[in-house]
User: Fold this.
Amino acid sequence: MSRDRLPAWPAVPSGQFPEFVGASGVWLHTADGRKILDAAGQACVANIGYGRKEVAAVAARALEDFTHALPPFATPQRLQLVETLRSKWLPLPLTRIHLVNSGSEATDAAIRLARSYQLCKGRPERWKVIGREASYHGVTLGALGVSGHHARRKDFTPLLSKVPLAPACYPLRCELCAGQQGCNLRCADGLEALIESEGSDTVAAFIGEAIVGTSGGALVPPDDYWPRVQAICRQHDILLIIDEVITGFGRTGRRFAFEHWGIKPDVVLAAKGFTGGYAPLAAVITTDAVIAPLVENGETMMFHTCGGHPAACAVANEVLEIIDREGLIERAAQLGAYLGLKLEQLRDHTHVAQVRGRGLLWAVELVRDKSTLERFPEKAGLTLAVVQAGLERGVLFYFGGTGEHRDIICLAPAFIIDTAAIDTMVDVLGQSIDAAIAGLGFISGD
Ligand SMILES: Cc1ncc(COP(=O)(O)O)c(C=O)c1O
Assistant:
């Protein structure tokens, strides 16, 4: 970017990243004429790739028909989206859909929903929503309050929920299962212990990402984790909210990641993937059973003025149609398996502690010392250095971590990626890790 032009958003330091002027397929185009391979879907959002004219066309048509329609009003685009989600995407008993503009808003709405549900059930003492360590549910104060993202929380602690966080399911760094063969689900026991110490009759809901996205870096839990957490929630009559903002709409090789474990959440949060970044849209999805007490009490969910904008709904209808028509979920599963195999080549790297993921959501966690899992110092800024080294070599990776957990590089390409591009991104990732670590000036074991 030329130095005499102000960045579009003054809070972002200028000069750190290239100026992007366009995009097509899996490529981002820079102002200086370069093409950057997007290995991250920007922030795990560009699931169908860039520049699809048919998506732009339906948005234009919807804007001609409706400049705006208040969220409670039915429009053809909204009705079609609700019908498509119900008939093709949502397993029963998920039938109710509340549309908002962002993942953060969806989390806030889910917190409000949980509270309204408990109030309408005659349980006013139940208001706490428990989140987990190493998680992210959004940047609004409600969402940050249930997020285990220390870097994003730290300046706002006085304004955030004081309800403690439950342990993460993060076997690499888990003190609860250290030295064991694998995860012993003591993290789930930790959730139960927290519910009991807080008083289960004060807890309204528990929220977690089915597979932790970028904060923990593609943390896939063992197969018995979610069934156990579901059982704990049921036993204590607590709503189970599953955040599928990153994982929903095919990213992990299923429609929703919770379907890998056959659980039945009470509330599901969805965003990014169903518009593929072509428009802002998010949804809080729930069941008739959760909505019934609100209906009986004449309670409605307050909306955001532009929530479920007709143009965004038209975009989502088209994007979902493309995912279906082109078999992109199956493709995400197949190419995800290929990406996982390809990433194996990094496992023996001196500074790679772990490679993990599912479908087309993967992460590589870097450490200074592999035997002790000692991290590089936070001030070394290794994550940013790797991302910048990637950009210099023509590939965009995404920053993972929470500050406390760090040096996690995420990969979440569009589902239309091919094996040649996957080979390139993994090769460049290896080179970028080496270049970034060399640039820090640390000697191994230093
Ligand atoms: C799992 C998860 N939930 C919620 C959010 C918040 O979504 P948004 O940035 O659209 O507000 C994010 C954002 O990255 C996310 O990764």
